Amino acid sequence: MLLWTAVLLFVPCVGKTAWLYLQAWPNPVFEGDALTLQCQGWKNTPLSQVKFYRDGKFLHSSKKKQTLSMGAATVQSGGQYSCTGQVMYIPQIFTLTSETLMVQVQELFPPPVLSATPSPEPREGSLVTLRCQTKLHPLRSTLRLLFSFHKDSHTLQDRGPHPELCIPGVKEGDSGLYWCEVAPEGGQVQKESPQLEVRVQVPVSRPVLTLHHGPTDPAVGDMVQLLCEAQRGSPPVLYLFYLDEKIVGNHSAPCGGNASLLFPVKSEQDAGNYSCEAENGVSRERSEPKKLSLKGSQVLSTPTSSNWLVPWLPVSLLGMMVIAAALLVYLRPWRKAGPLPSQIPPPAPGGEQCPLYANVHHQKEKDEGVVYSVVHRTSKRSEARPAEFAAERKDSSIIYAEVRCLQPSEVSSKEVNIRSTLQESLGDCEEVLC
């Protein structure tokens, strides 16, 4: 009786430490390995009613099997394991518990990281390279990894040994969410990278500006709306509004589209050439100018290459007048030696008209010797020869002029003598000495 009591006291004490123990293999265990637990008695003592626990929680039980297959190991498969089993010592049955076994599953390779070169925001038309990066554990470096690439809901490239994917000449439609997947050849582990958003940057197109107001030209106090829109371009788009070359407002379109500016007409200074500019960090484009005219006023547009001379017209005209006045003063070298037309004496009695002649002496120093003489001779109404006078009446208005250039030695300082002879076919000759 005393012997059985000693056995009962000894078995539980010893069994907890050496009579029952738990094993896990393979060791070390990596992701994808088939993890197996074995609850074993001292000297392979048969066990019954074997139960397995992880972190103190029940996992599985078996009446006779002493092993438990955990399937392909994952990082989450690690933990503190233990087992219990019944041992029969006739005529008694004892329940024994193993020591805790720490199981740590090694990571075969970290989750891949997808990157885009040169940038996840490439410009339209450029070349983009997607690279899927990861690294095997040194103890499993002989394994071969396979890579696949995906975009949104479809596959771009099936599993293969190449960790890169090239996309030549990206377009706006290539924007989207990309990711890659890595798996060892013949293995059950596969890991996906975080999603990478690729946004192809499209240059803005030339915007179109539209002026909105009433059916007629606006007046002071009326409202005017400027609407600017670029048909293409990656958002966000910043719109700038100009009056001539001065910025009068701006508006941002975070999702693209158009932008507007509403303002009241305060004065005639609000009239002029309006334009808008679209900019999205990729390119910048300016619209065609639109002229805004106010009711009852005429506004000159901003001086351009065709009308920049307008402000200088008054100055130009004034300069021309000054030059003309100077020329008149400079070129006034003449003087009349004879009487002015208003000073011509009245006709002499008897119907005769006095000769009309004039001497002109150029006063300029370099032309000092030039003398002009003009003589107008009217026929005498002689009562003695009326028939001859009537016959030659038609020639009575003949004008002769003589011009002679004198040498400086022949010219007197006060007067110049020019002799002109007026000869008429009637034989009536008169010499005029000036």
Question: Could you estimate the helical fraction of the residues in percent?
Answer: under 10%
DSSP E strands, number: 31
Give the CATH superfamily of the domain at 20-106. Immunoglobulins
Mean pLDDT: 76
Unreliable stretches: 1-17, 298-310, 334-434
State the CATH architecture of the domain at 20-106.
Sandwich
Over the alpha carbons, how many angstroms does the gyration radius reach? 60 Å
Main pleated sheet: 5 strands, antiparallel
CATH class membership of the domain at 20-106: Mainly Beta
State the end-to-end CA separation: 187 Å
**Helices and strands: which structural class?**
mainly beta
Measured by DSSP, the beta-strand proportion falls in: 35-45%
CATH topology of the domain at 20-106: Immunoglobulin-like
Label the overall shape: rod-shaped
* Tally of separate helices: 3
Task: Describe the overall structure.
This protein has 434 residues and is mainly beta. Among the domains are: 20-106, Immunoglobulins (Immunoglobulin-like, Sandwich); 113-198, Immunoglobulins (Immunoglobulin-like, Sandwich); 208-292, Sandwich (Immunoglobulin-like). Helix content is 10%, strand content 41%. The protein contains three helices and 31 strands. It has helices spanning 2-19, 313-330, 386-391; strands at residues 20-25, 29-30, 34-41, 48-54, 57-62, 67-72, 79-89, 92-97, 101-103, 105-106, 113-117, 128-133, 145-151, 154-160, 164-167, 176-184, 191-192, 196-198, 208-212, 223-229, 237-243, 246-253, 258-264, 272-279, 284-286, 290-292, 356-361, 370-376, 399-405, 419-422, 430-433. Strands 4, 5, 7, 8 and 9 form a five-stranded antiparallel sheet that branches. Strands 13, 14, 16, 17 and 18 form a five-stranded antiparallel sheet that branches. Strands 21, 22, 24, 25 and 26 form a five-stranded antiparallel sheet that branches. Mean pLDDT is 76; it is low at 1-17, 298-310 and 334-434.
